[in-house]
Amino acid sequence: MFTHRPSLFCPPSFRLSLLSFGLLASANSMAADGELFDLLDMSLAELLNVQVVTAASGYEQKLSDAPASVTIVAREQWRQSGATTLEDAIEPVAGVHVGKNNATQGNPLVSIRGIGGFTSRNVKMLLDGLPIEDAQLGGRSGHLSAGIGNAKRIEVVKGPGSVVYGADAFAGIINVVLPEAGDSSVNQINARAGSEGHQDLIAAFGGSFNQHKWFLGFEYSEASEKSGNIVEQDLQTVFDSIFMTQASLAPTRLDEEHQKYDITARYQWHALKLDFFYVHAEGTAGTGAANAMDERGWLENTNQHTRLRFNFDKYISLPGSTELTLIHTYGYLKNRWDVFPQNSLFPVGDDGNLFTAGGGLVFFPDGVRGTPSYKENEYIAELTHLVDLGPHKLRSQVGYSNERQKAAEKKNFGPGVLDNINYPGDGSPYVSQTMVDVSGAYLYVPPEISRNYYWLSIQDEWKINDWVSSSAGIRYDDYSDFGATSNPRVSVHFKPLSKLDLSVFYGSAFRAPKQGELEIRNNPSLIGNKDLKPETIDTLEFALAYQATKNLLLQANIYKFEASDLVMEVALEDTPSIKQYENIESNSGKGAELALTWRSMDRLSVKLNASYNDVKLSNDDSKPYIPKHMVFAGFNWQVLEQLNTDLGFKRVMDISRVKGDPRPDIKDYNWVTAALTWQSTKKTELSLSAENLTNEAARAPSSANSGIVYDLPYHGRQYLLSVAYSF
User: Fold this and answer.
1) Is residue 661 one of the residues assigned to a domain?
2) pLDDT digits (tens, 9 = 90+) for 680-701
3) Cα torsion at 242, 243, 247, 250 (round to 10°)?
4) Using one digit for the tens of pLDDT, what is the confidence trace for 430-456?
5) Considering the entire predicted model, what is its pTM?
6) Region label for 355, one of left (φ > 0), alpha (ψ between -120 and 50) or beta (otherwise)
7) Which residues constitute the domain of residue 538?
């Protein structure tokens, strides 16, 4: 349990009693009664026939019909492996890498085929089709991530998805699919506890009465997790050597303490559906805002979605299905940063910023502190029409969005706080201690900002004959602050033999500049740029799937992409210590993925995959910080009717640094997971799992100028015990 952080919503004694009750009650069922064993009894060919995907086209379709490369991570799959987070569950997917953010915080950083971006902003993360992201900078902020404890499946779509989801579906889409109202297949009480203070509680209840259907889900997770290795030095270590201070907290372990909870409520009555999703996360600042270790930093993030859907099929005479969707999204972020630690000393310029011209030395006995925050409200209305015309299945959608953000900030440095100060006459440093509210002209962004955009999209899924089908679509988006963009997608599927599927995919996508990238100001190290253009990408892919036998599936994908106008941080000519966002980089990439899935009749299954990814910068240098080669091997054995074992092995290889970085090469590493699951009755289950079983001293690369010379450590060996009851 935590000793120095406040509870999110209940006292520690109450949380402990809930966990104790769950541990006494029982275990995390893999599915509803008999469902797991039905799946186990199916051949791979039969499983492929029943698997569906939503994220690829915006509606449910057979996996084999999807107009993109899609991997389904089934519920029983990640639960048998012992995975408890979204990142753990998708790590085995070919071409997916979970690294660490080397710019700030050291948080998990998801990339698909070498593209992820700062805070994973190039990968669209969805909770049942709705984005979980930081509105100001995009991607994952702080510890924010959707829980998977009550999810039905996870869909990983590789390649552009802007034709359905618009902005940010750039490298791919990760969609966590939740049970619909009335679905009771995941009804459960589940408790977990393990090393590094891990404690989780999960509950779900779905059902129906007359025409009323509902699903209620809850998930709580906390950990006092720390890496198994030491961060030997940080950026403050460098400044200590310059200013003769001793402020750095390094060497120290990387603190990744967090608390999270998710609430899901779904209701359906006749043609009306109402959904409420609430995701809240709090946690430590990790490597800090400026890669100076931050023991007191604390980050809070909230994403809240309310979605109302009404189906008009019974009320209008149009062919097909017509649905009106109204969405309200509320986002809240509050960060408490020690940008630099207590007792640090810095030169401050006449404008109040660190390291700018003029001014003098300022001593920060309480650290360089800031508490930026913002609230976002987004209102969306969309009308979707889906019609089946025999060989053609058409989906069209028109939508409108209005985003509004309000920001606030208190800090003890910067413009409005330290500009034009009177320094002591004896030449000693000025002492800065007072936190000042700068929520006006000196705020880090304008106090209120807004954005409007509308879109129109159309797709056609065409079954030409029994062995050829195609899909084509295009989406047009028009933004109030940077203009319009159009993004097409085309795919063709061939089935020349009953066991062989061939596919060709082409698509384009864009990532819209976020409000922070456009508007950040009054910042000591980074400012926005209102002239930013959208990032763009074009991808071509060939895919092959061969069902060699009923229980042996072979798959291969090769791809190539060109990404342009990527947003990077560039030093200003007149003030090199300050950087500005600019569209200056382009990437070209190519790669291949091979996968083998085999299931024997005695309930032994094997998953093998290997990926090769070669991404080049515009100067033909290899893109740094991403692995070129990855291999995964997973083995699952149903030893007895009640006993299941699972072993996963992933090797990550050939991660390069920036050209000219004199540090030694980044070491390849292995990541091993293992789980043992015992189903004592049809409704109760006990499992024991281990992550980083071999206690590998794995590290993710830090940037050359971060001050963290010896890279970012992953956590050491961890164990987790799970007990649950399904009903």
Assistant:
1) yes
2) 888 999 999 999 999 999 999 9
3) 0
4) 999 889 999 888 999 999 999 999 999
5) 0.91
6) left
7) 19-340+372-409+444-726
